[in-house]
TrEMBL record:
The lineage of its organism: Bacteria, Bacillati, Actinomycetota, Coriobacteriia, Eggerthellales. It is found in: Cytoplasm. It comes from Enteroscipio rubneri. Residues 22-177 form the Histidine kinase/HSP90-like ATPase domain. This is Chaperone protein HtpG. Keywords: ATP-binding, Chaperone, Cytoplasm, Nucleotide-binding, Stress response.
């Protein structure tokens, strides 16, 4: 027995138990090695006219023997001599493929795509095998040699027999135990699944004998009641697709093919809403095929949902979901990225340089943004369906980035316009603004119908201004993060901002001062506040800590009262945070009870105050406060007390 070169036992143990995290990738590694061997022979045929290869010679075969517990991977590649077996398999981490790749870097072109880099993929076989036998015959040689090892101390090399050039790798699988099962690799379905999953786009046919069923010929003497009989037979099938759909010219691929690929590979029953590709060449070359789903997966907003694109290197699957390739706000995008320029780690399961992923990710993000803009501008109906499914994620992107992404994402948002009675973008809202409008107004709540009936919304609409009706829990947080929307102000000849230009403030109609009153109305409000100072103080005392103040409203026309929020936390934010299951006490808004001094109810309040009826003032204050809460969709603290108060007024 020959000893492994290098610190064999420790290093081999490292190969088997530490480098790879998923033992099923052994087949990926062996098929990749077989592909390299075929590639090397094909490359020689390009430079040596004496080498004539038929199409059927360039193939890889996978087979299994359940009784003998063996899995065999065979190729018709360049094969190895005795010395090459000793050098390549006896020296761990020696990669003959890497040496070939470097020696022929300029001559390879697109015709050859060597996958191997580290010389360790072969040893992944020992994760599932208790012994491995390699029988190889070099092209042009009459001799075949067998390398055999149990993966512990060393290996042996002996003469063997093989009909033609190429290599057979025979794995004798480990026995099943209580904790480990290897029988899945001894089934047609199990091996086919692994080939489809990891090696579907290896450039050479990966073939297996598979079982099929066919109807037996009908006997000549069969009667009318004859029932067809079927038989099982075996046939050599090509399991892999070979040419990735993302590397084919778009003009050569029908939309149905893209749709079928998407539904099959990403397990969706609906066609994608959009399909687009990226082909980049330069310092970092890659191909990408991306899909915007036609529907949202049920777990999209759950903590278990995992984003990411399938990452391939030289057509071999590296990661099923590479998270670094997608930002969170585009987590719904599905697809594949394939690059032979990636610097993989030794196990080919992750990358050594995440800067490469980040560079690809940035370009993919720009492409997705561009495609969404095209959909918004050219197919509005389809875009509105998309936004219904995934718009929440775009809003969260602005919120979680503290508004840093608003320049990229804000124009993709849609909101319901109370004035136009349809979904509009922020640019469309701004374009329709009348001259003199200083802010973008919005109302946040649970339903468009209820928001449209809010007194303050009607007031803003009455001024000729539109109101965006926001019904998603993230809307308020998104707008608070944005703060403003629009380009920087235009400058005059003296580089001073031109009045009316510049970004517009985003204002919740239920928060703060909307600044909608005329100078005359403001003066009237100030006079009314001063004149009724004692009444407002009495109502504040009656309501206690429930409100921070009672004030004259400049935003009401028909309603007697409303609740607004004076601080950074709006009523809607308070309601949403109160529903969060964090167990802590939700922050409260600084509530202000605003009174419409022109409403006849205010006359009743004044009369009670002037009559010195403190109990009635307290009763009126509580009723108006609770009514305003109900109109805003906020819960009232004591519904029974409110009902009793209304009953008392009616009695």
């Amino acid at each position: 027995m020959r000893k492994f070169k290098t610190e064999s036992k420790k290093l081999l143990d490292l190969m088997i138990n530490s480098i790879y995290t998923n033992r099923e990738i052994f087949l990926r590694e062996l098929i990749s090695n077989a592909s390299d061997a075929v590639d090397k022979l094909y490359f020689r045929s390009l430079t040596d006219k004496d080498i004539q290869l038929g199409k059927d010679e360039l193939a890889i075969r996978v087979s299994y023997d359940k009784d003998a517990r063996t899995v065999t991977v065979s190729d018709s590649g360049i094969g190895m001599t005795k010395d090459e077996l000793d050098r390549n398999l006896g020296t761990i981490a020696h990669s003959d493929s890497l040496a070939f790749k470097l020696d022929n870097a300029e001559a390879q072109g697109d015709d050859v795509d060597i996958i191997g880099q580290f010389g360790v993929g072969f040893y992944s076989a020992f994760m599932v095998a208790k012994s491995v036998r390699v029988v190889s015959r070099a092209y042009g040689s009459d001799e075949a040699w067998a390398w055999e090892s149990d993966g512990v101390e060393g290996y042996s090399i002996q003469e063997a027999e093989r009909a033609g050039h190429g290599t057979d790798i025979i794995l004798t699988l480990k026995d099943d135990s209580e904790n480990d099962t290897y029988d899945t690799f001894l089934s047609e379905y199990g091996l086919k699944s692994l080939i489809k999953r990891y090696s579907n786009y290896v450039r050479y046919p990966v073939q297996m004998e598979v079982s099929k069923s066919r109807e037996k010929p009908k006997p000549e003497d069969a009667g009318d009641d004859y029932t067809p009989e079927y038989e099982t037979y075996f046939e050599l099938d090509t399991i892999n697709s070979m040419v990735p759909i993302w590397k084919r010219n778009k003009s050569e691929v029908a939309e149905e093919e893209y749709n079928e690929f998407y539904k099959t590979d990403f397990h969706d029953f609906a066609d994608p809403a959009r399909t687009f590709s990226v082909h980049a060449e330069g310092a970092l070359s890659y191909d990408a095929l991306l899909f915007i789903p036609g529907r949202a997966p049920f777990d999209l907003y759950s903590k278990d949902f995992k984003k990411g694109l399938a990452l391939y290197s030289s057509n071999v699957l590296i990661m099923e979901k590479c998270e670094e390739l997608l930002p969170d706000h585009y987590n719904f995008v599905r697809g594949v990225v394939d690059s032979q320029d990636l610097t993989l780690n030794i196990s080919r399961e992750t990358l050594q340089h995440n800067s490469q992923l980040r560079a690809i990710g940035r370009k993919i993000e720009k492409k997705i943004t561009s495609e969404l803009q095209k959909m918004r501008d050219n197919d509005r109906e389809e875009y509105e369906k998309f936004f219904e499914n995934f718009g929440r994620g775009l809003k969260f992107g602005i919120y979680t980035s503290y508004g840093m992404l608003k320049d990229q994402l804000a124009d993709l948002l849609l909101f319901y316009s109370a004035k136009q009675e349809r979904l509009v973008t922020l640019p469309e809202y701004v374009e329709a603004m009348p001259e003199g409008q200083k802010a973008i107004y919005y109302a946040a709540g649970e339903s468009i119908d209820r928001l449209g009936k809010l007194p303050v919304v009607k007031t803003v609409l009455g001024k000729g201004y539109d109101v965006l009706l926001c019904t998603q829990d993230v809307d308020e947080f998104c707008f608070q993060s944005m703060m403003t929307y629009g380009p920087e102000p235009e400058l005059d000849a003296e580089d001073k901002p031109i009045e009316g230009t510049g970004p517009k403030e985003l204002k919740n109609v239920a928060s703060g001062d909307l600044d909608l009153a005329s100078e005359e109305e403001k003066k009237e409000a100030e006079e009314a506040a001063k004149e009724n100072e004692a009444l407002f103080a009495a109502m504040k005392d009656a309501l206690g800590d429930a409100v921070t103040s009672v004030a004259v409203s400049s935003r009401l026309t028909d309603a007697p009262a409303c609740i607004s929020a004076a601080g950074p936390i709006s009523l809607e934010m308070e309601r949403i945070m109160a529903q969060m299951p964090d167990g802590g006490e939700a922050p409260k808004s600084e509530r202000v009870l605003e009174l419409n001094v022109k409403h006849r109810v205010f006359d009743v309040l004044k009369a009670a105050q002037e009559a010195g009826d403190a109990d009635k003032v307290k009763l009126y204050a509580e009723v108006l406060y609770n009514q305003a809460l109900i109109v805003e969709g906020m819960p009232i603290d004591d519904p029974v007390a409110y009902a009793n108060a209304v009953t008392k007024l009616m009695a």
